[in-house]
Records
---
Amino acid sequence: MNRLQGKVALITGAGGGQGAAEAYLFAKEGAKVALTDIQFENVQAVADKINAEFPEQALALKHDVSSEEDWIKVIQAVVSKFGPITVLVNNAGILATKSYKETNIDYWRKGLDINAWSQFVGIKSVVPIMEQAGGGSIVNIGSLASIMNAGGFNAYTASKGAVEAMTRSAAAEFGPSKIRVNSVHPGAIATKMLTDTITTDEGMKAVEAGIPLRRVGEPEDVAKLVLFLASDDSTYITGVEHIIDGGMWFV
Ligand SMILES: NC(=O)c1ccc[n+]([C@@H]2O[C@H](COP(=O)([O-])OP(=O)(O)OC[C@H]3O[C@@H](n4cnc5c(N)ncnc54)[C@H](O)[C@@H]3O)[C@@H](O)[C@H]2O)c1
């Protein structure tokens, strides 16, 4: 308990899935949490649920992570409600399932804008606040798709590869300011993103058969790792890709 006491966290894409699980766990561990999402009704519902259990700890905001204007407004709102942001979880993302031949330039740019450019703007915007606060932790959500062979997910793998590389360069640049930057690379996690893609029981069984732990991950599995990276339990860890996939990558 209270592993995030005194921290102010901003989690993007927290209207469902992994972001919602992270927001709940963060509040439970004492953080003030700003939850943002392009789907405002969803993120408001998650924040209401958190506030019912942990009063005054959650704030819901509408946020398109591919808009710099939205980032500026969101950050101002969070700082004025809760004070300086000391944890950023760049979680919002979309799956882009087209192959090289099917991918046109607009489709590729959209994948990169939402999954990678957004994280660059988020990092750039919160770093001055974290520097003034004396440090912070940034967790960028990537994917196993940038680490293992993922044919047919062209723009997605490119965007998640950018997340991995940006994480290392940011960790090197901001380490002297006591700002840690890590990436998390989930395998198959039971959220809308996965169930929209794997739509049959047979398909899901085939996915599970390829995972040594023989199950897909739950959003809470990832939330526990993100909590560790956000907390002071990981004060000497930065610039690292953390795979969480039930062993999927090595088989
Ligand atoms: N589920 C998986 O199997 C899996 C695997 C590897 C990586 N990931 C990554 O995990 C992260 C979380 O995904 P999830 O599994 O919870 O899926 P999800 O679809 O449940 O959640 C994604 C959230 O991002 C929000 N979002 C989408 N576009 C946005 C935008 N432009 N601005 C703000 N919010 C936006 C959605 O509204 C949604 O609430 C993503 O970055 C995803 O790429 C997921």
---
Amino acid sequence: MKEISVFLENEKSTSELGLKLSERLAAGLLIFLKGDLGAGKTCLVRSILISLGYDGKVKSPSYSLFEQYYINDKTINHFDLYRFKSPEEWLSTGFNDYINVHDITIIEWPEMAKNVLCDPDIEIEIVYDKEVSRRAIIKAKSKKGEAVCKDLV
Ligand SMILES: Nc1ncnc2c1ncn2[C@@H]1O[C@H](COP(=O)(O)OP(=O)(O)O)[C@@H](O)[C@H]1O
Ligand SMILES: [Mg+2]
């Protein structure tokens, strides 16, 4: 499948993408979120969680590395690996056990666990754009990911 590119003019556009994704999330989905600091990765996750019905505070896991949410019948695992010192930390922390067939797992900075993380279903990169603030490049990497990304935007 070809990649999808979508302009995100402002925070509201990022939230709208989160809403669309939230409506399509399937059990066991693994999503990688790439992009520079401040690109809007956590903002996108926050919007997904709120769209699913979460009404608490969504903390960035930039210090804790990991936050977990139970929303209705779904479990969402949210990681931020920016502070990893080596990819092996993904294994030594036991984080890999959180990837399973039921939970939806979203990982910011997956590059920090390169070669130890399994392949995602979807990879989203948010890049800074000179003219339109941000652009999201969305790639389906599995059949399950393709089903989510088809007609997404
Ligand atoms: N499309 C957008 N255009 C401009 N600003 C945005 C956009 N999406 C999100 N933002 C803002 O950019 C910042 C992104 O922060 P955050 O989501 O924590 O970034 P990251 O997790 O990628 O480091 C927030 O202040 C948010 O309000
Ligand atoms: Mg973040």
